[in-house]
Every structure is written in structure tokens, then in C-alpha cells.
Design a protein that fits this description.
Blueprint lengths: L1 H63 L1
């Protein structure tokens, strides 16, 4: 009897938690995609910063001539 009760409770918990697990998987997938986009944006910002710095340096050199 005790084993049957535990099995029933376990099955009920699995059934109730399944939708939550699916939502967690969806959120995890979205978070992974956001991390990839952030990495790409960080590289773009770094490139833009370096390019702007070089342009500023060249402008300052030209002004000093």
C-alpha cells in the first residue's frame, strides 16, 4: 500500500511538473540565443570602438600638421 501511494504521488508530481519543465527548456533555449547575440554585439562594439579611436587619432594628426 505504501509503495502504491508513493508511486501515485510520484506520477502526479511528474504530470504536474512536466509543463513547468517544458517552459524551463524554452527559457533556457532563449537565454542561450540571447547570450550568442550579446557575444556578437560585444564584438561589434569593440570593432566600432577601435575604428573610431583610429579615426580620432588620424584627425588629431591631421590637425597638428
Amino acid at each position: 500500500m505504501n509503495d502504491e501511494l508513493l508511486k501515485s504521488v510520484s506520477e502526479l508530481l511528474d504530470q504536474k511538473l512536466a509543463p513547468l519543465q517544458q517552459k524551463i527548456e524554452v527559457v533556457d533555449d532563449k537565454l542561450s540565443r540571447l547570450e550568442e547575440k550579446m557575444d556578437t554585439l560585444a564584438a561589434d562594439v569593440e570593432f566600432t570602438y577601435q575604428k573610431t579611436s583610429r579615426n580620432e587619432l588620424e584627425i588629431n594628426r591631421l590637425k597638428q600638421q
